[in-house]
Specification:
By secondary structure, the chain is α/β, with parallel strands linked by helices. It contains 2 helices and 4 strands, in the order E-E-H-E-H-E. It has one domain.
Length: 79
């Protein structure tokens, strides 16, 4: 099973465990590791992350995603 962390609504297959986060970067920066741990506790094969915008407001989220991605099966996608 695949996990998907998204900041927009994306069409996903039924066998995908996903969380949509329409919140701003401050919320996601605070909650990202908690959300990723929830994904990991579901024994997912892979975690896909919709990469947030490359703007100064999202810098903390980018930093945390980079750190988390270095130790997990996580693929970043840009839309």
């Amino acid at each position: 099973m695949v996990g998907m962390l998204s900041i927009t609504s994306l069409p996903l297959p039924e066998n995908c465990f996903y969380i949509i986060l329409p919140m701003g970067p401050e919320f996601l920066a605070r909650q990202l590791y908690t959300i990723l741990r929830e994904f990991c506790s579901n024994n997912l094969d892979c975690i896909l992350v919709e990469y947030p915008p490359r703007t100064p407001g999202w810098a903390a989220v980018h930093d945390r995603l980079t750190r988390a991605g270095s130790s997990a099966c996580m693929t970043h996608i840009s839309l």
